[in-house]
């Protein structure tokens, strides 16, 4: 078992060296912030989702991320085609089950996507609790549960689907069903900026792309980068409006040593 978390800095370096192409099938709200987060961190985002090309594009992407935030029926074949292609090509793909508990349509699509075996599931506490079958108080896309209360649900899900599960909130938790990590940091301003979690899902794809066979470490590194940069930006921000550009600047400016020095990760 690893006792050091210096893999975070190493993986950040690799993202910048390799500039991985990440196919982001994400919601309409998150398109701009997700692409900017990936560019700032050093990855190469492409928002390619049409049924006619999503699977083909997954063939050239280094990772695929799928987010059901603004779901409509026409989006589903592209999502499933890209997930299938990623699975066939043994490329990582990340699922963000936004508000999957809210409607029968979302529940159905998420269950079909889960059958295609995501490498990583990233959600907020209410989403992770509900996906595991636990009581959830989520309201639309917003969590109403504490992230600490979703740790058991994350373990259940990771074991059930044999994947990595990341639950975010005031503290973050990552597990592969056996090993776990708690990541502290971030800022209460982060949930006040829309789609930062969606952007983090896409960034997790970028880290997984440069860490084949190590999706647990990749997920921790992506979340740690968000936590350190979010906390840093919050020291200078006056509110959610000024936080967003400061956060992008922090993502672009941070180096591997500073990430390793400031990340607060406990491996369990
Ligand atoms: N209260 C908080 N304190 C510190 N960091 C937070 C807090 N809430 C969320 N974060 C951070 O914000 C980022 C996004 O996580 P969050 O759980 O808000 O995602 P989400 O609910 O899926 O977001 P969205 O649906 O708006 O994209 C993570 O890096 C997380 O650590
Ligand atoms: C606000 C919103 N609505 C659907 S997706 C989304 C972005 C945050 O999940
Ligand atoms: Mg979300």
TrEMBL record:
* Origin species: Pseudorhizobium endolithicum
**Which NCBIfam families would you find in this protein's record?**
PRK09355.1, thiM
Q: What is its EC number?
A: 2.7.1.50
Q: Which reaction does it catalyse?
A: 5-(2-hydroxyethyl)-4-methylthiazole + ATP = 4-methyl-5-(2-phosphooxyethyl)-thiazole + ADP + H(+)
Fetch the Pfam families from UniProt: HK (PF02110)
Official protein name in the record: Hydroxyethylthiazole kinase
Q: Which family does it belong to?
A: Belongs to the Thz kinase family.
Q: Which cofactor does it need?
A: Mg(2+)
Which positions in this protein are listed as binding ATP?
A: 122, 168
The keyword Nucleotide-binding is assigned to this record: yes
Show the stretches that span the lipid bilayer. Answer: none
Pathway(s) where this gene product acts: Cofactor biosynthesis; thiamine diphosphate biosynthesis; 4-methyl-5-(2-phosphoethyl)-thiazole from 5-(2-hydroxyethyl)-4-methylthiazole: step 1/1
The answer to keyword Ribosomal protein applying to this record is no
Q: Which GO terms describe its molecular function?
A: kinase activity
Q: Where substrate is bound, by residue?
A: 47, 195
